[in-house]
Amino acid sequence: MASVLSYENLVHAVAGAVGSVTAMTVFFPLDTARLRLQGVVNVLLTTPLWVVNTRLKLQGAKFRNEDIVPTNYRGIFDAFHQIVRDEGLLSLWNGTFPSLLLVFNPAIHFMFYEGLKRQLLKKRKKLSSLDVFIIGAVAKAIATIVTYPMQTVQSILRFGRHRLNPENRTLGSLRNILYLLHQRIRRFGIMGLYKGLEAKLLQTVLTAALMFLVYEKLTAATFTVMGLKNAHKH
């Protein structure tokens, strides 16, 4: 036992810890960039599927908007074929730019969740299950409300059957995103950017609140089993 706790071993342990902290500090930006890149790759790979999925779901629906051109797809492969044939290959990536911006939705969610949690922990030693559930719900509601206009534009671009600004036919361009936002506000007012928000909140807020409740309970149970009860305050 004395050999294990010797001064020499302590020096090696401290040196290893310092080296590890230094390496993590130096390469942490690369790890952050890797996570962001994974999100971008995921968006680029799945956007064509979302475009086709959106169009198939809305096919046959009656729209009051005269700017919408009706579609007639016989299935998923026919939808891919018609989109590429009539609109070009890049049309499969309509809505990519808003999707990339929406990668920040989870970041906003976690930022508000951690901020609200820290504020509550200043007033009490331990958070109840109800506290965690409410904090998770409020944080997700804020993130959803902040990013919902982009989700509205994303859906419009994915559907793609709009007679857009004749001066610029590139659906994924920033100019047309701003054009769609302006047209939406001009036609429906500022609340036009938030149509369908109630259903989206019910879908995402409850899911996120339950997720964080389960996460905190599992984390607390893990720390307890490992004998680190005081390291976690839930």
TrEMBL record:
Pfam families: Mito_carr. Its main location: membrane. It is a multi-pass membrane protein. GO terms for molecular function: ADP transmembrane transporter activity; AMP transmembrane transporter activity; ATP transmembrane transporter activity; coenzyme A transmembrane transporter activity; FAD transmembrane transporter activity; FMN transmembrane transporter activity; NAD transmembrane transporter activity. Belongs to the mitochondrial carrier (TC 2.A.29) family. It is found in: Peroxisome membrane. InterPro entries: MCP, MCP_dom_sf, MCP_transmembrane, Mito/Peroxisomal_Carrier. The chain crosses the membrane at residues 12-30, 97-116, 128-148. This is Peroxisomal membrane protein PMP34. Keywords: Membrane, Peroxisome, Repeat, Transmembrane, Transmembrane helix, Transport. One of its GO terms (cellular component) is peroxisomal membrane. The gene is SLC25A17. The lineage of its organism: Eukaryota, Metazoa, Chordata, Craniata, Vertebrata. Solcar repeats lie at residues 7-119, 127-221. It comes from the Eukaryota. Gene3D superfamilies: Mitochondrial carrier domain (1.50.40.10).
